[in-house]
Amino acid sequence: MQQLFKHTKGDPVIWAVVVVLSLLSLLVVYSATGMLAYKHDASMNHYLVKQITYLGLGIITMFFLHKINYTKFARLTVLFYVISIPLLVYTLVFGVTLNEGSRWLQIPFLDKTFQTSAFAKLALFMFLARMLSIKQNVIKDFRKGFLPVLVPVLLTAVLIAPANLSTAVMLVMTCCILFFIGRVKTSHIMLLALAGLLCGLSVYGISKLKGSGRATTWEQRIKDYLGSSEQGGEHEEVYQVLHAKIAIANGGITGLGPGNSKQRNFLPHSYSDFIYAIIIEEYGLIGGGLVIVLYLVFLWRSILIFRRCPYAFGAFLAVGLSMTLVFQAMLNMAVNVNLVPVTGLTLPLVSMGGTSIWFTSIAIGVILSVSRYVDEMEGDEKLVEAEKRKTTKGRLAAA
Questions:
Q1: pLDDT-based confidence at 111, cuts 50/70/90?
Q2: pLDDT averaged over the chain?
Q3: Residue range 275-316, pLDDT digits in tens
Q4: Degrees (nearest 5) of the Cα angle 347, 349, 351?
Q5: How many domains does the chain have?
Q6: For 252, left (φ over 0), alpha (ψ -120 to 50), or beta?
Q7: Using CA atoms, how far apart are residues 29 and 36, in angstroms rounded to an integer?
Q8: Which of 59, 223, 290, 361 could be joined to 229 by an S-S link, Cβ 3.0–4.6 Å?
């Protein structure tokens, strides 16, 4: 164990956040999957073992990635992005339909699916980090600087939006923040926001005209959120929100205690989309607040890495990947407390899942790689300074 800690580098606070969120995930997933195990005639430990496996593989992935110098990822970002585009197109046309949208791709010869939008998000932010670092000298110029980073964002968002509008909107909003940090003109960012709005309206209009797609689902979610749905509490998403509110009310300040959730047997997707409501029911507002603090601490430490990193690629890589994870977490928690309409986004590192945990682990592993490189570079600089001071003192003593 000591040898493992000796070889584990990178920001220790980020590692601590990962461990705490992973342990919380095991506790809540085990509590929330009892009814799911009963429905599928599985052992009570079945989903806990799966989650342990997913998280274990995720942490191993983080460990190996953080040992790789992040600069080596720069060569792969273009390849990852180029691969992500045909994957999104294929998923949109031939993907497995879940929740009225083609979001998942069946892995050949395996009874498994994975969400291509998760891979596309990771590939896009790594690609943007590279492009922003290359274009810093001309980033204020629309044609030479902004257009080359704008096109990939719009292309990815357009391909994701028909099946998963919430992910596409989150993607564009996070990119706008990253562009602002990357010194893009505010007028250009506003242009991107306008383009995103027009794309969303275009997708909605085409879906309405064709009578297919996700337009009806989007309308229903807005009506449910505003309380104007004619289907009332019978609609699944209204039912989810109602039971999430009950779970939060049951939790109070200190919660009912681990494993004592009552709404886990009634709340759909209590182990994924609505796991935060179960956290509050079992651990109260104190536990729910702690989860928010953990994600904010993760973002704060990533921003510190961004500020310390001497190279633009590593800086943009750390802040871009951390923002997309934290932004997704905040949206998920906002849905659970009914601040925004239901989106279908999971809580990173906490919700039950396979590929979502894996891609989240890859992102965190890359961030830790940047942190490790910065720490080693600063350590080398301190050694050089110490050697200089020793040499100076030696010369003075000799004189």
A1: low
A2: 82
A3: 999 999 999 999 999 999 999 999 999 999 998 888 888 899
A4: 50
A5: 1
A6: left
A7: 11
A8: 223
pLDDT at 384 over 50: no
State phi, psi for 120 to the nearest 5 degrees.
-65, -40
Structure tokens at 78: 């273009």
Residue 45 pLDDT exceeds 60:
yes
Which range marks the domain in which residue 394 is found? 2-398
Q: Cα dihedral sign for 248, 325, 296, 50? A: positive
Cα distance between residue 69 and residue 366, in whole Å:
9
What span, in angstroms and rounded, lies between the C-alpha atoms of 5 and 240?
A: 42
Which residue's structure tokens are 């886990």? 264
**β 113-115/96-98 pair status:** unpaired
pLDDT bucket at 216, cuts 50 / 70 / 90: low
Beta strands across the sheet bearing 101-106 = 96-98, 101-106, 113-115
- Count the neighbouring beta carbons within 10 Å of the beta carbon of residue 246: 16
For residues 317 and 198, what is the distance between their CA atoms, to the nearest angstrom?
Answer: 28
> Is residue 18 within 8 Å of 59, Cβ to Cβ?
yes
- Specify the pairing of strand 96-98 against strand 101-106: antiparallel
In this prediction the pTM is: 0.86
3-state secondary structure the chain: CHHHHHHCCCCHHHHHHHHHHHHHHHHHHHHHCHHHHHHCCCCCCHHHHHHHHHHHHHHHHHHHHHCCCHHHHHHHHHHHHHHHHHHHHHHHHHCEEECCEEEEEECCCCCCEEEHHHHHHHHHHHHHHHHHHHCHHHCCCHHHHHHHHHHHHHHHHHHHCCCCHHHHHHHHHHHHHHHHHCCCCHHHHHHHHHHHHHHHHHHHHHHHHHCCCCHHHHHHHHHHHHCCCCCHHHCHHHHHHHHHHHHHHHHCCCCCCCCCCCHHHCCCCCCCCCHHHHHHHHHHHHHHHHHHHHHHHHHHHHHHHHHHCCCHHHHHHHHHHHHHHHHHHHHHHHHHCCCCCCCCCCCCCCCCCCHHHHHHHHHHHHHHHHHHHHHHHHHHHHHHHHHHHHHHHHHHHHC
Report d(CA 147, CA 293) in Å as an integer.
36
Of the candidates 152, 236, 149, 167, which has an alpha carbon nearest to the alpha carbon of residue 203?
167
Q: CA-to-CA distance for 299 and 304, rounded, in angstroms?
A: 9
Distance, CA of 319 to CA of 189 (rounded, Å): 18
- 214, burial (CB in 10 Å: exposed 0-12, middle 13-18, buried 19+): buried
